[in-house]
Amino acid sequence: MRGIVEQVRGRVPGKLEITEEGLVHDLASPGGPHELTAARVSRRLEKVMPEGLLAHTGTPDVEDPQQGILRHPDIMVIAEADMEVEGAFDPRALLAAIEVVSRSNPDNDWTSKTRDYPLLGIPVYVIFDPCTGEGTVFSDIHTAPQGPRYATRKDFVYGEDITIGEWTISTDGLPRYPA
Fold it and tell me: Where is pLDDT greater, at 24 or 79?
């Protein structure tokens, strides 16, 4: 499937990812509220994180070839040194993956990534949902009968301070999608 993604990337709109269940194609390109949320969260994190860590919003993807999973978080908390690689980042190098829910495919963030990210060993997964003005911080991977899962879930509403890993940021002033 990796070959298919590479062949069509850039020729089809939106974002392609590989999950345990197959290909996910989010047709819509992210809009203003999505991108503004990612930018504000990234900047707020970088203000409180130590030198050498980034809240990266660019490319490449994260990939675990053994699991057959290729994902592209909206924000990746990662050490600069772990970015000095060719190709996809090792998902186990991420300190956190952060997603801003897409209007066109919210189940991708709320369901399949909640399953895939602990499987990839990403210790913290955060969801910001501009549809509802709420979100969730998932952490503490544990083994479950269905495979690795997050044991801790902390829900929040926009306006509250949240802790992502070791860093606390405000969620005040994050945009919402128009009704």
Answer: 79
Write the CATH number of the domain with boundaries 30-170: 3.90.1570.10
Distance CA 88, CA 65 (A): 10
What does pTM read for this prediction? Answer: 0.86
Give every CB contact of residue 48 below 8 A, 6+ residues apart in sequence: 167, 168, 169
Encode pLDDT of 30-81 as tens digits.
Answer: 568 999 999 999 999 999 999 999 999 988 889 998 888 888 899 999 999 9
Cα–Cα distance, 154 to 164 (Å, whole number): 10
Per DSSP, the residues of 17-84 read: EEETTEEEEE-SPP-HHHHHHHHHHHHHHHHHSPTTEEEE-SS--EEETTTTEEE--SEEEEEGGGG-
How many angstroms separate the Cα of 101 from the Cα of each of 16, 51, 96, 136, 176?
A: 15, 28, 16, 11, 11
Beta bridge partners of 124: 139
Give the number of other Cβ atoms within 10 Å of residue 8's Cβ: 12
Tokens of 120: 């990839």
- The residues spanned by each domain of the chain are 30-170
d(CA 151, CA 123): 11
